[in-house]
Amino acid sequence: MKKVMAFITLIFSAALMCGCSPVSVSELYSLPQLSDEYISLQALIDSELSGGSEYSPPAGGTNLQAVQQYDLNGDASPEALAFFRTGDGTLKICIYSSESGEYREVCAITGDGSSIGRVEYADMDGDGSSELIVAWQLDGGITTLGAYSLEAWSGAALLTANAEDFAVIPMSGEGQDLLILRRTGEGEAAVDMCSLAGSGELAVSTAKLSRGFGDVEVMRAGTLSDGTAALFVEGSYMDSHMITDVFAAAGGSIYNITATHGGISQTTRSVPVYSEDINGDGITEVPSARRLGSPEGDEFWAFDWKQVRPDGQLRAVMSTFHSYADGWYLDLGPLEGYELFVERSVGLSGRRVTFSAVEDGGALRELFSVYVFTGANREAQASAAGMMLLHSDESAATAMSVSAPELDADELAEGFALISSGWTLPAA
Q: Considering only CA atoms, which of 304, 184, 206, 209 is closest in space to residue 259?
């Protein structure tokens, strides 16, 4: 208590010294007062709730709050959006705008469904104002997608379509394009690119996914080798494989630029690993898999990462080995030209992955090993003579020992990295 009173006395003295009016102890301890603007917004929301509505925030995506703020009209003053389910089960999005320090409801958009699956804000025509993209989730896993104009707060529907998934990417012009994944009448999958002109006219272009494309697992923005935006769609192919289709825009139309061989992209692989900017150059790389030599019963793979050119051709830029069980990967650039054989062993103090070169006649020559020590003395083991510490945390210490004199340990260590949580691991 003495410390508190001393702090208060110090503030009081400072106020007198600078010519400020003294403040009371009760004022020092009082909570911040809510602004009139916030109070008016809360009153509008309370009125909706007291009328029988309940909060119904989006179930997926990045915009998950029941009440969100976003500058919809580009005036640098964010609007508030509240997501409800009314008493009769209707899904409702209320948009509130502040004028003269007080919020008022300017638009309400309603839809049918079991929930709001996802919401995105997109400036589709490049005019500085946003359109609202809403996925209305229906029973049975069906999604109805709606794009709504907020010009003059009309809430007018620009389009309504059944969708399996969607993305918002600036591909064809000044604005952001709405990419809709859907199933065609023939059971195949296609992507519609919906572009909004400044006149309000909506143009739609369609491109099919590869023949035989199964379930779509990932649909997201990526970047081609020249830095232009593209859509990467990844999923199952022929039951036991994965495939990546890459879509780009030209002349206002969308094209599957990788499906150049009989309508099938040459990006199939037998290991479920997604495309990624693996080397941090801002370009999305697509992996292909090749099996490495290993003891019978084990499977180890090298991944060759390839950039996608605007003409759909692939260019390899990096090769990696991924030890999924141990959570790390390695750039295989320094090992170019070697035929590799990989072994993994588990002991009481940790785990070891050994890389060997396959010599003439099939003999193995050990090149180097990566260790993950997990015991109580893991730091000492990882720092022992002949070891190079690569990474350490509260649960494990990772180190490398190099046997081959022609290899540069520092160069190998520079290519070591941890596997991110977004990676897909092959089934054991």
A: 209
Per-residue pLDDT of the chain (428 residues; tens, 9 = 90+): 444 344 334 333 444 344 454 555 555 555 566 788 999 999 999 999 999 999 999 999 999 999 999 999 999 999 999 999 999 999 999 999 999 999 999 999 999 999 999 999 999 999 999 999 999 999 878 899 999 999 999 999 999 999 999 999 999 888 999 999 998 877 789 999 999 988 889 999 999 999 999 999 999 999 999 999 999 999 999 877 999 999 999 999 999 999 988 899 999 999 989 999 999 999 999 999 999 999 999 999 999 999 999 999 999 999 999 999 999 999 999 999 999 999 999 998 899 999 999 999 999 999 999 999 998 899 999 999 899 999 999 999 999 999 999 999 999 999 999 997 555 544 43
Q: Give the chain's end-to-end CA distance (angstroms, integer).
A: 61
What is the pTM for the complete model shown?
A: 0.86
3-state secondary structure (DSSP) of residue 383: coil
In this structure, which amino acid lies at residue 344? R
**Token representation of residue 245:** 């289709």
Rounded Cα distance, 331 and 305, in Å: 11
Q: Which residues pair with 341 in a beta bridge?
A: 293, 356
The residues near 285 (Cβ < 8 Å, ≥ 6 apart) are: 275, 276, 277, 278, 279, 305, 306, 307, 317, 318
Query: CA angle at residue 181 from 176 to 115, to 5 degrees?
Result: 90
Burial of 310 (0-12, 13-18, 19+ CB in 10 A): middle
Q: Are 171 and 99 in contact (CB under 8 A)?
A: no
Long-range contacts of 35-38 (CB under 8 A, 24+ apart): 35/101, 36/101, 36/102, 37/98, 37/101, 37/102, 37/103
CA distance 151 to 199: 12
